[in-house]
Amino acid sequence: MPGRQLDNWLDGFLDYTKRVESPKSLRLWTGISTIAAVLQRKCAITYGEETWFPNLYVVLIAPAAQVRKSTITNRAKELLLLVAETNISPNAVTRQRLIRLMKNSKVEAFDPITGGECVPQCPMTVFSGEFTVFLGYQDREFMTMLADWYDCDTNWSYETKHPVAGSNVDNIHNIWMNLFGATTPQLLKSAIPPEFISGGLASRTIFIYEEKGVLVKGNIPRNLKLRQLLVNDLQRIKLLKGMYKTTEDFDKEWESFREDSHNNSPFKGNPMFDAYVSRRAAHIAKLSVILHASYSDTILVDGEDIRKAITILREAEKNMHRVFGGVGDSPYAALTDRILRIIEKSGQTTFGELMNTFKYDCDSWRMEKILDVLGAARLITRPPGITTNAVSTIRFRKKSSTN
After folding, report:
1. Who's near 59: CB < 8 A, 6+ residues apart?
2. Given this model, what pLDDT does residue 293 score?
3. Confidence (pLDDT) at 325
4. pLDDT tier at 330 (50, 70, 90 boundaries)?
5. Which of 39, 121, 222, 273 is paired with 152 by a 20 to 30 Å CA distance?
6. DSSP string for 105-133
7. Alpha helices in 59-94 (DSSP H)
8. Which of 41, 35, 78, 30 is nearest to 233 (CA)?
9. Checking DSSP bridges between strand 348-350 and strand 393-396, what pairing results, if any?
């Protein structure tokens, strides 16, 4: 097969999709997930006692029809469908059917752990333009299974209804699951049970949150020549295999990141993300491999790869807390979050303006109590005492520092 035709596949993908009215962050993570889909289990990276394969769980989150989530998802899926032997799940599937599809996806492929022999592997990628259609609603068993598959176990067993070869237990060897989807905040919160948000599937997922799309002017057709170059290079990337080595520069950056992540959580004071934070190092290791594979056939990640991975992940984490805003034990948690969003967007508002916006959701007494909570949390500032006066000013309190 000829060499690569693009200097960097991700740069090429961003160029190819620049006329899709999606923010760059959404297009970038779509491209990252596309590369992961072809790397599969043939590549891995080890650090200390840990081994990670380059699979990711990524979900784009934005209000309906605002950022062209389905369009960007379909652009990437079209490319993958043109690459040989890339197993893509149906958009909607039952748990039992997905298990069968995973088992039937078996191929003989290079094992990076043993470093030579080919072994049976079961790679599967989910590319879903509406993630909740794939996920279902409150399907705890399905979500638990997907969380289990994230770690790409060597042997995964499950109990069947009917005996197979005299046994009710069947095994799938060398699972590899890569998951990419898109949905709205409201649909996601209705699909995932509250107890699954701080752990399980959600804690393994990188959520990319945006609120507004971009405006693209002009009627310029898609670059089909560039699309073919992207497909050709994806086919080339799919040939990569091996256990990625690290440079001394990578090692220094890795240790620095782990220490900083341990001492300075990007979600400090929000226990909902504690389990996610414990997996940040895994995300960085996987991202480093994917970013390197985007431009090089060498099985070696360096300092530049991990620095870029850290920058990309930290940028995504700035808005990640918004994904589950309004989730909590209080019956007014969702309303509190909506009110805070309005104050944040305007920067400054009045009690009367808030009451006019939320007149069908709460009375003045409830609004006062919600503002008390936001004030105590140091998220807003307002005059002391009872402030139900219509013209009393409420201001959003900007953070003094960021990670």
Report:
1. 131, 179, 180, 181, 182, 183, 188, 205, 206, 207, 208
2. 98
3. 65
4. low
5. 273
6. T-EEEE-TTTTS-EEEEEEEEEEESSHHH
7. 69-81
8. 35
9. antiparallel
CA-nearest of 78, 68, 18 to 230 is 78
The dihedrals phi and psi of 363, each to the nearest 5 degrees, come to: -95, 180
At 14, is the pLDDT very low, low, confident or very high (cuts 50, 70, 90)?
A: very high
Domains of the chain by start residue, with CATH: 9-245 (3.40.50), 333-396 (1.10.10)
pLDDT attached to residue 88: 93
Phi/psi region, residue 208 (left: phi>0; alpha: psi -120 to 50; beta: rest), is beta
- Amino acid, single-letter form, for residue 188: L
Angstrom distance (rounded) from CA 152 to CA 154: 7
Q: Which residues contact 289 (CB under 8 A, 6 or more apart)?
A: 39, 43, 45, 52, 54, 244, 301, 305
The pLDDT of residue 171 is 85
How many CB atoms are closer than 10 A to CB 208? Answer: 26
Return the structure tokens found at 360: 């069908």
Residue-averaged pLDDT of the chain:
89
First-to-last alpha carbon distance for the chain, in angstroms, is: 44
CA distance 254 to 284: 9
Place of tokens 């140091």: 378
Question: Of 40, 52, 167, which Cα lies nearest the Cα of 105?
Answer: 40
What pTM does this model have?
0.84
Amino acid 6: pLDDT: 97
What 3-state class would DSSP assign to 344?
helix
Q: 401: pLDDT confidence band, cut at 50, 70 and 90?
A: very low
Residues in the chain, how many?
403
Token pair listed for 10:
């991700």
Q: How far is residue 112's CA from residue 135's CA, in Å, rounded to a whole number?
A: 31
List pLDDT tens digits, range 72-113.
Answer: 999 999 999 999 888 899 988 988 899 989 999 999 999 999
- Which two tokens mark 264? 């300075």
| Encoded tokens for 222 | 């898609």
Tell me which residue of 344, 393, 351, 390 sits closest to 369, measured CA to CA: 351
C-alpha 212/C-alpha 115 separation (Å) is 46
Query: 137, exposed or middle or buried, with CB in 10 Å at 0-12, 13-18, 19+?
Result: exposed
Question: What's phi and psi for 135, nearest 5 deg?
Answer: -75, -30
With residue 179 as reference, give the H or E element that holds it.
Answer: strand 175-183
